[in-house]
Amino acid sequence: MWPAGTDPDTPRHRGLNIAPSRDGQLNTDSDSQTNYDDCMTERLYHTDSTLREFTARVVAQQESERGPAVRLDRTAFYPTSGGQPHDTGMLNDIAVLDVWEDGSGDVWHLLDRLPQGDEVRGEIDWERRFDHMQQHSGQHLLSGACVRVLNAPTISFHLGADESHIDLAVPEVSWAEAFRVEADVNRVVWEHHPVEVHVLDQAELHKVPLRRPPQVTGKVRVIWMRDCDAAACGGTHVCETAAVGLIKITRIEHYKGGVRVGFLCGTRALEDYQRVLRGLQEVSAGLSVHQSQLGKAVGRLQEEQRQARRELKAIQTQLVAFEAERLWAETPEASGVRQVITFLEGHTFEQALAIASQQSTHPGTLAFLAVSEAKGTRLVCQRSDDLHEVDAVSIIRRAAEALGGRGGGRPDLAQGGGGAQPQEAILQALRLGASGE
Ligand SMILES: [Zn+2]
Fold first, then answer.
1. Nearest-angstrom CA–CA distance, 428 and 330
2. What are phi and psi of 41, to 5 degrees?
3. Is residue 325 helix, strand or coil?
4. How far is the CA of 369 from the centre of ligand 1 (A)?
5. Ligand 1 mean position to 230 CA, how many Å?
6. Average pLDDT of the residues of the chain
7. Structural domains of the chain in order of their starting residue, each with its CATH number
8. CB neighbours of 188 closer than 8 A, spacing ≥ 6?
9. Which of 102, 182, 231, 386 is the most buried (most CB within 10 A)?
10. Distance 32 CA to ligand 1 centre (A)
């Protein structure tokens, strides 16, 4: 039975008796670490992290809120702790859904149902476990490289379902620095150093170059990757560094005064590379350019789009001006005044404002226009400067009220709105509004 260390990798042993585990629970500087000497459950993964099958005896069972749970005399199932999520698998033919440790250091297994009899055969979901071992071992190596290259200590670790991260106690990490860390840590992977597990007395700890001093009494379980990293830890690790595979930093962001570094190891890194490459291939094919030219191609597209927007805006302005003049010219003059009263189908309110503005540059003109929008009818009334006696506000209010809405503005320019109405009803409201003047 191993005692825990104090590295972020180290399991924490605080908790309620039957508290369910939380996947990838963050373990920071745990100050509440129970010595494993007192634990009841023998943890087979401590001496053999490659053990996939085992037999054990059920020594306790209970009904938790989420279903039945059993405690075994020994287990190869890793409970959620130290930033590493729990294992899953089977006990006999029953699915193991969650694994956690209680305040006494005992390990509980949440099951579909209780097994018959006391003897059980356990089988770990190896794909999930090996993935966790790759991410977790990779974290040790990455934390070691961050100290070597950036003098940046790790203060916490989280192994997520998709991505893992470490939090570094430095204010800033650039991508150039991250690439230097990646080069260093992957070199260490390729050098295939053995990953040794040592259980040491406090007096022996000076023999190991621990990245952080442990803060527990009694024996300490140390994961020693020679010439790369040494840390007190109760988790599961690969047997040599090469088994971690590629280590890739995927994200750098500021977090609580420090820096959060996201990373992927092994199979996850490979699958991410495949995903990214597929995405690049699709974009590359869509733009008919080689992947190395994508940056330039996107730059060209953006410039073309800006140019197209400028041209479109110029054409729209011309079109609105043309339409404003056409409508004005078609409107008969009565007593020296042209009342352009119309519903502009398929126009935006901004276009209606532009049309009214242009028409009112002609002396003796009252432009009273309406458009339909998703929320209802919108109105604008604008008169030329010489029509001092005409009050656009009164006009717009009469029409808006007829449409169940309201309006306001200045005597020369007013806006308003009302409910959605058929075109004929809107025109009727406009005529009613204008008739008072
Ligand atoms: Zn570890």
1. 19
2. -80, 125
3. helix
4. 72
5. 10
6. 89
7. 130-287 (3.30.980.10), 314-435 (3.10.310.40)
8. 141, 144, 145, 225, 227, 228, 241
9. 231
10. 17
